[in-house]
């Protein structure tokens, strides 16, 4: 049992390091090869975890080889578009100029129900509103609505909007983030001046967000510091 | 770029471990086969003291080799050999000649199989 405990800890570290090494991606945005590698890694890690008669290396070596292959393949995909097309495929246009591309849908084995479901998830409730719909290589649907069905934005309406820049969390649970401060072009002195003006001390702040313009929002910690 | 370096290090590490593993298995099995073969030959010519000495040497050498082999080989496979070798000195002392010889043959086959399983051959790949 102790062996299982220690092995699980070691494999946890290895799997986290492996996934970290492969790069950040949300599960839903995984390419085919990445999804396969992620599933395989979790399976491989579980074998020496539950079977102590198997050496730890029998799990570690295949994980390392998969990570090497995945990073090499993604590097090659970056440099060689043809290789990328082979591994990831191409985006497929399923609605073009408002017309359903039935052949393409058939090749994707995509039913009209699937298409409508994905459109609804994009806040589009009528196929008629769509100018273009593209199934991306990661399986997600990108939608471009017909111009007359698009919601108007500030630009076309001619409404001037002041640029506020990026709003970041500069204090989280009493801890100042220098990185977040640098993103919104502020510094610790500005933070302490703001807190002084509000009669607050750092441990009393649960959340503080700020933007480049110097606008901020503070939430006090409940029950004091 | 950092990621590519990490991949190169990882690749070098996995290849080194794989090659060293195969070479170590080969070295250990060859040495063990030689020792067991010596014990078997000694027993066949009726030299029981030498056979006993070699079978004890086989047990002790295997104990040392086991520590490294279990890092990368299936433990069950190694334990089978543990059990085969463990009875050799007893059989030699009890003068159970036929059984001793058959256990020697069995361990030789196990060593051959152990070495074979680490080789990069088509049989092992498929």
Major sheet of chain A: order of its strands?
A: 2-1-3-4
Stretches with pLDDT under 50, minimum 5 residues of chain A: none
How many helices of chain B?
6
CATH structural class of chain B? Mainly Alpha
Mean pLDDT of chain A: 87
- Quick one: biggest sheet of chain B? none
Alpha-carbon distance between the two ends of chain B: 36 Å
Can you give me a brief rundown of this structure?
The complex is a heterodimer of chains A (225) and B (126). With 225 residues, chain A is an alpha+beta fold.
Description of the molecule:
The complex is a heterodimer of chains A (225) and B (126). Chain A has helices at 2-22, 32-50, 57-79, 81-88, 102-107, 112-121, 154-157, 178-183, 188-198, and strands at residues 92-96, 99-100, 130-135, 141-145, 168-172, 175-176, 205-210, 216-220. Chain A has 225 residues and is α+β, with helices and mostly antiparallel strands. In chain A, the strands form two sheets. Chain A has a four-stranded antiparallel beta sheet. Chain A has a four-stranded antiparallel beta sheet with strand order 6-5-7-8. In chain A, helix 1 (2-22) packs antiparallel against helix 2, helix 2 (32-50) runs antiparallel to helix 3 (57-79) and helix 3 (57-79) crosses helix 4. Chain A is flat, with a radius of gyration of 25 Å. Chain A starts with a helix and ends in a 5-residue tail after the last strand. The model of chain A has no long low-confidence stretch (mean pLDDT 87). With 126 residues, chain B is mostly helical. Chain B has one domain: Up-down Bundle (Four Helix Bundle (Hemerythrin (Met), subunit A)), CATH 1.20.120.660. Helices cover 86% and strands 0% of the residues of chain B. Chains A and B meet through helix 3 of A and helix 1 of B.
